[in-house]
Amino acid sequence: MAERASTKTIAENKKARHDYFIVESFETGIELVGTEVKSIRRGGANLKDSWCAVEEGQLWVKQLHISPYEQGNVFNRDPLRERRLLMHKREILRLFGLMKQQGYTLIPLSLYFKGSRVKLQLGLCKGKKLYDKRDDAARRDANREIDRAMKERTR
User: Fold this and answer.
1) Which 3 state secondary structure label does DSSP give 136?
2) Predicted local distance difference test score (pLDDT) of residue 90
3) Cα–Cα distance between 120 and 34 in angstroms, integer?
4) pLDDT band per the 50, 70, 90 thresholds, residue 75
5) Residue 126: phi, psi to the nearest 5?
6) Calpha distance 106→52 (Å, rounded)
7) Measuring CA to CA, which residue among 86, 50, 55, 87 is closest to residue 66?
């Protein structure tokens, strides 16, 4: 029997869901060093302004902040260094084509442990305009009012 790997979310990019329409999402591995993994286990990761790029056939995440590990001394790396993402070459080329032709962006949505491995959920996103954000806020407020009214009615 194969055991199911449990997932534990470390960090989420809530701003991405506010600023972009998420068309498709992907699970990728991320290349880290030991002190970075230890720092992530302590919750020292921030996805807020991070984004991804395809360079020379490889996928890189940029501006992903992983705090230095306190006991890491000389083994600590730069907190904002570029980190390579692990995907199949065919998937990377497909994403690169979509980014170039249709104007999509790759944004990290969440960082989590799957078993003992660190995974990154990537979103293929299209930017929202200001009126789209207003529509979402109005829809969310309307749904909240409907829920309140239904709750009052059932009492």
Assistant:
1) helix
2) 92
3) 17
4) low
5) -120, 135
6) 5
7) 50
pTM, full prediction = 0.73
Encoded amino acid at 111, one letter: L
Confidence check: pLDDT of 53 > 60: yes
Range among 42-51, 62-71, 74-83, 145-154 rated most confident: 145-154
Taking the chain, what is the end-to-end CA distance rounded to the nearest angstrom? Answer: 48
- Measured distance CA(86)–CA(76) in Å, rounded: 22
Q: Rounded to whole angstroms, how far apart are CA atoms 57 and 124? A: 17
Q: Which residues are 20's β-sheet partners? A: 127
Angle at 27 between CA 72 and CA 113, to 5 degrees: 40
**Is the per-residue pLDDT at 3 higher than 80?**
no
∠80-86-87 over CA atoms, to 5°?
A: 135
Lookup result for tokens 């749904």: 143
